[in-house]
Amino acid sequence: MPKTKRRVFKRDDGRNPDDLRPVKFKKGVAPAALSSVLIRMGNTQVICAVSIEESVPRWMKIQKVEGGWVTAEYSMLPYANPERSRREVTAGKVNGRTQEIQRLIGRSLRAAVDLKLLGSRTLWIDCDVLQADGGTRTASITGTFAALHMAINKLLKQGILTSNPIREPVAAISVGLVDGIPLLDLCYTEDVAAEVDMNIVITGSGKLVEVQGTAEDQPFSKAQFNRMMKLAEKGIKELVEAQQTVSHV
User: Fold this and answer.
1) Which one of 140, 186, 205, 234 has the minimum C-beta count within 10 Å?
2) How far is CA 44 from CA 40, 136, 142, 197, 209, in A?
């Protein structure tokens, strides 16, 4: 009997299930910052900028914690979506989603850095979403590591740092189940339709920093989880390679 031809699943944008969206970086988009990168993942665009402060948070001084600190702020610009969103400064407070993403970005970057080698200083990471089409938090993490690496290289050249504090690269990607099919790097329409949505942060050596996963309707199996993790590992490897093309000064 002739073999049945296997159907190749294609997404709305023509990608295969295990394809990333096109990834592009543009350096130097914020000239006043220590370093900056515009990351594009498909239609999602985020400016990631690094600034330096020759001080550390008060709690570090009180607790006499050695070394420095890396922290992040995240903002969705009002025009990042077709329907304008209200600036959080107008509301007078940062909403829960923004706080969660800021903390995730900070944790992810600190996992890649030996804070003791930073000295008594803070590196501020600012992530501003210009256009949102899914995966803004994962794009922010991937873009900020490239910007952070550039900043560290500058500080080493200037003699402000004497040892490189970067342990290894870190990147992040979304995966999910849509109609039961594991997909890599979900765009917005896939994200809202997903039965399972996961955001995964992994280092260049394959170590997990964070796994955020939620079943929207039915629980998912360990086998499905493993398939999504395999997709994420593939995507992270490709993102780390892309980071390396832009992370030098």
Assistant:
1) 205
2) 6, 7, 12, 17, 23
